[in-house]
């Protein structure tokens, strides 16, 4: 039975016990001008996922992968958070530890909007890391187009060649276990007072797409805010088919 979609802009009734877990995807950044993945003209168009977002693709052609990510880094230069990002930062300021934001996005716009309780599940476009040494991921805004893959300076000083990679979780790579454990703790702490809201995601990629099931398993309420019905829409109690820039501020207006 598919969940009926709301037509007006609903507002969430939160209590002083409500724990709000939000999952965002590329759709929340669409109104900031960041291309989504699976729309016509999206990021995956013209790029085969296995070529640009997989470990095997990186080994096969690191320059192609660095071109793909460099283009996206360059594209972030003139984008800014939108009303949906700001509404989530404001909600965090009100709820504090009863709020947690999990994003699949790598664009950094939630942190840019002032969110701090953010888990960047799939990494961050403005960070790189070495493929060999244990140097922690570091900020790297450089756009590599010169046709040469960037190399690790620390490894060079130690006399070995090691190529840098974007600090991104590719398909077939594990999500940081600490991230998953933190989410699990929050879901359990929320229990029946948990409100789970997925915003701007096609519900195709796991384990993110299974968060709705985790929320339901503890008796939480589940909301989807998306421009169209997502792959997992039927698993939500409420579906709001609306763009995030309008629906998200309205949804959390009562928590003001
Ligand atoms: C893992 C990094 C295991 C790259 C990304 C079969 C079943 C279950 C799982 C699998 C399976 N086969 C394979 C898997 C595993 C795989 C997976 O889920 N594959 C899918 C395709 C089936 N998952 C993995 O590999 C994950 N790792 O499982 O590891 C493991 C365990 C132990 C040891 C080793 C391994 C890793 C997944 C992470 C992959 N990396 N990105 C990059 O970003 O460059 S995923 C990529 O897709 C992005 O991160 C993106 O965020 C994510 C999801 O896409 P969305 O954000 O949803 O974006 P999309 O364009 O699809 O949708 C946007 C939506 O917004 C649309 O619905 C649109 O209508 C809407 N919208 C548009 N505008 C607006 C809007 N909504 C509101 N307002 C608007 N204005």
What's the architecture of the largest domain, going by CATH?
3-Layer(aba) Sandwich
Report low-confidence residues grouped into runs of 5 or more: none
Secondary-structure element series: EEHHHHEHEEEHEHEHEEH
For the biggest sheet, the summary is: 7 strands, parallel
Beta content: 15-25%
Query: What is the CA-CA span between the terminal residues?
Result: 34 Å
Distinct bound molecules? ligand BV8
Number of strands: 10
Assembly status: single chain
Rg value: 19 Å
The average pLDDT value, as a whole number, equals 93
CATH superfamily of the largest domain: TPP-binding domain
Description of the structure:
There is one protein chain. This protein is α/β, with parallel strands linked by helices. The chain has 2 domains: 136 residues, Rossmann fold (3-Layer(aba) Sandwich), CATH 3.40.50.1220; 76 residues, 2-Layer Sandwich (SIR2/SIRT2 'Small Domain'), CATH 3.30.1600.10. The chain is 29% helix and 18% strand. It contains 9 helices and 10 strands. A 7-stranded parallel β-sheet has the order 1-10-9-8-2-3-4, sandwiched between helices. Strand 3, helix 5 and strand 4 form a beta-alpha-beta unit. Helix 4 packs parallel to helix 9.
């Amino acid at each position: 039975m598919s969940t009926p979609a709301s037509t007006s802009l609903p507002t969430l009734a939160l209590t002083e016990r409500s724990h709000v877990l939000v999952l965002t995807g590329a759709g929340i950044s669409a109104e900031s001008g960041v291309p989504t993945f699976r729309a016509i003209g999206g990021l995956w168009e013209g790029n085969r996922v296995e070529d640009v977002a997989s470990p095997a693709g990186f080994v096969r052609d690191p320059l192609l992968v660095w071109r793909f990510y460099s283009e996206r880094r360059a594209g972030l230069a003139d984008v800014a958070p939108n009303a949906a990002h700001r509404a989530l930062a404001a909600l965090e300021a009100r709820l504090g530890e009863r709020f947690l934001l999990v994003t699949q996005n790598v664009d950094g716009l939630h942190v840019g909007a002032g969110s701090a309780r953010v888990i960047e599940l799939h990494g961050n476009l403005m960070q790189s890391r070495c493929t060999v040494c244990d140097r922690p991921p570091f900020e790297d805004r450089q756009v590599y187009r010169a046709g040469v893959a960037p190399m690790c300076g620390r490894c060079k000083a130690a006399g070995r060649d090691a190529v840098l990679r974007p600090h991104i979780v590719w398909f077939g790579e594990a999500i940081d276990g600490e991230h998953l454990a933190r989410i699990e703790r929050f879901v359990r702490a929320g229990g029946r007072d948990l409100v789970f809201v997925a915003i701007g995601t096609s519900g195709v990629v796991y384990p993110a797409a299974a968060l709705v099931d985790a929320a339901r398993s503890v008796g939480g309420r589940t909301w989807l805010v998306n421009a169209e019905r997502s792959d997992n829409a039927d698993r939500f109690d409420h579906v709001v088919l609306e763009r995030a820039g309008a629906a998200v501020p309205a949804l959390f207006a009562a928590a003001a």
